[in-house]
Amino acid sequence: MSVVLDVTVRDDTGTGAAREARRNGMVPGVIYGGDEDAVAVAVKMNEVLKAMNTGDFLGSMIELSHEGKKQKVFTKDVQFHPVTDFPQHVDFYRVTNKTLIDVEVTVNFVGEENSPGLKEGGTLNVVRYSIEVTCPAGDIPDHFEADVSKMEIGDTLNISDIDMPKGAKPTITDRDFTIATVVASRAAVEEDAEEDVDADEVPAIEQNPQIDTDGDGEA
């Protein structure tokens, strides 16, 4: 956990108060969860932007500091301005290292250069670029590694093929869902289809019969 943000508590809430905070270079937000009441806060815009640039802000556990007191939180959601793309509001969820949370974790695919199926001209069809898991807030995986180095055309990579760190479990538990498949390229499929057409299945072109114009039975 590398992100620490200083926050101020907002006495006023509502749309007008939030706009006033933004005019003063702050990003309004709220801290909620746990056994405590929700608290309206504000964070300096430049500090939020700096935290976002680290890649460890949204969907990560960070620390908020207020008058010397610190609170671990999970950045649950960030709302952005539709035009400027600047953050407009942040939702922080109170957690401890052991608090179980649901979070999306990116899947990194490795071994593509060694995949027999891809070498034969197949295509890696990615079904899921991320996996939602339940895990402790203090042990959120940076990513999951999906090894496709042994995949042939027609092979499927499922969630059971992904190594999960201790404490992390997929939120989907009723099936062994697909992460990726290796499929034949469209060109290869069309070429195979053409080769499957047997010459005997092509109807012969009947020659025009010769006409007996002399009536002697000979054409």
Overview of the structural elements:
There is one protein chain. 15% of the residues lie in helices and 37% in strands. It contains four helices and 13 strands. A six-stranded mixed barrel has the order 1-3-2-6-5-4. A four-stranded mixed beta sheet has the order 10-7-9-12, with no helix packed on it. The longest helix has 11 residues, at 186-196. 21% of the residues are buried. It folds into two domains: 4-95, Ribosomal Protein L25, Chain P (Beta Barrel), CATH 2.40.240.10; 101-196, Beta Complex (RNA Polymerase Alpha Subunit, Chain A, domain 2). With 219 residues, it is α+β, with helices and mostly antiparallel strands. The protein starts with a strand and ends in a 23-residue tail after the last helix.
Note the main attributes of this structure.
219 residues, alpha+beta, Ribosomal Protein L25, Chain P, RNA Polymerase Alpha Subunit, Chain A, domain 2, six-stranded mixed beta barrel, 4 helices, 37% strand, elongated
Q: How many H/I helical runs?
A: 4
Mean residue pLDDT: 87
**How many strands, what sense, and barrel or not for the largest sheet?**
6 strands, mixed, barrel
Query: How many distinct beta strands?
Result: 13
Strand content: 35-45%
H/E topology pattern: EHEEHEEEEHEEEEEEH
SSE blueprint and pairings:
Blueprint: E1 4-9, H1 15-23, E2 26-32, E3 39-44, H2 45-53, E4 61-66, E5 69-80, E6 87-94, E7 100-110, H3 116-119, E8 123-126, E9 130-136, E10 144-147, E11 156-158, E12 169-170, E13 178-183, H4 186-196
Parallel strand pairs: 1-4, 2-6, 7-10
Antiparallel strand pairs: 1-3, 2-3, 4-5, 5-6, 7-9, 8-13, 9-12, 11-13
Family: Belongs to the bacterial ribosomal protein bL25 family. CTC subfamily.
Function: This is one of the proteins that binds to the 5S RNA in the ribosome where it forms part of the central protuberance.
InterPro entries: Rbsml_bL25/Gln-tRNA_synth_N, Ribosomal_bL25/Gln-tRNA_synth, Ribosomal_bL25_b-dom, Ribosomal_bL25_C, Ribosomal_bL25_long, Ribosomal_L25_dom, Ribosomal_uL5_bac-type
